[in-house]
Amino acid sequence: MKLPKIDGERLWSAHMAMAQVGRIEGDGVCRLAASDEDRAGRDLFARWCEEAGLSVRIDGIGNMFARRPARDDTLAPVLIGSHLDSQPTGGRFDGAFGVLSGLEIVRTLNDAAIETEAPIEIVNWTNEEGCRFQPSSLGAEVAAGHIALEQGLAAEDENGITLGVELDRIGYRGDSGIALNARAYLEGHIEQGPILEENGEDVSIVQGSMGVNAYSVTLMGVEAHTGTTPVTRRKDALYAAARCITEVRALAEEFEPDGRATVARLLVEPNARSVVASKVVFTTDCRHRSPASLDEMSRRLRQIVDRVSAECGLGYTMTPYWTVPPRNFDADCVGALEAAASAMGLRHRRMVSGAGHDAIPVSAVVPTAMIFVPSRGGVSHHVSEYTAPEHLEAGCNVLFQAAVRLAGIADAGGQRA
Ligand SMILES: [Zn+2]
């Protein structure tokens, strides 16, 4: 059976309508997780789903699942989705694209009166962004069983208000079971980087995610007067940090394009103009798609800190604060997305995600894959974030073809096509 195409104009209109919810100056959105704006976005999404004939259920951490009936409703569903929460000054497409693509796929199936063999469910995961409650992808982490429900509900924002209290307040703490039972999960997302645009490509098929080893490094020196202490007699923690940062940059260049290494945060004590720094705390963030290479990067990083500290006469500590293993997405799901992109004649490449996404925890328990669509200028988490309508449309068509292939089409006799 030749499948129809999704309606690109309708998909764009849904993005523009959702972007009115929590709209901020400069065409951005602010829909912090479990805020009033998040509730309004959820309400709009739920209304659209009900109008499309879907039944919406909410689990205990506020994840929303909108189910389209199938020929065999006992089969595990194909999930399609992402998140509707945003950064405080977020854009119109991050997260929304994955959820609204799911909606457009269902609308297209309805219009063409296509019955799938297994159900299709659209999912909106709670608190992907991690800017109000930590960690990020909290709803997906709880659903994947990596974080206990009680622990997730107890996450506090900066005012000490818990996610559980806020979900109750906005009416989105549900009672359906947490455990995920799905035959596949497909997520569409904006790239948030410059690669597709620079190469004039339409879509990337994401085959997995980089692992992360992140440390907090503390260098301990000695305060000294900047006017009276010769440099060779100093134990200057800021000078040592600068040398470490330069070497981490060289390490990063050596491991690109499959790896990343970054120092992004620096705290200096006493941070006074006439005092040699006695203490510097900085973060190091190493990422790589291969576990062995990630270990190698972390080993080299420790060598850098150890050697520079010794040469500068300093003590140091290195404490891990974030560790995520690299994940490979499911070969069948990756294959279904790639076949769809090829069949449509789209310019596509494979990619590994260096950013966090709901698909990453979900992939531990459900066969999963993602696509990225181009981000203009590589910009995201900003009001100017933009993806062209034709790229949203192409990406949604890829998700549509793959989702229907994974769910199967029911024929008149009830056999899987
Ligand atoms: Zn996102």
UniProtKB/TrEMBL annotation:
SUPFAM superfamilies: Bacterial exopeptidase dimerisation domain, Zn-dependent exopeptidases
Top-rank lineage group of the source organism: Bacteria
Keywords, ordered alphabetically: Hydrolase
One Gene Ontology term of the molecular function aspect: hydrolase activity
Signal peptide: none
Keyword Hydrolase on entry: yes
Keyword Cell inner membrane included in the entry's annotation: no
InterPro entries from the UniProt entry: Amidase_Cbmase, Bact_exopeptidase_dim_dom, Peptidase_M20
Family: Belongs to the peptidase M20 family.
UniProt protein name: Zn-dependent hydrolase
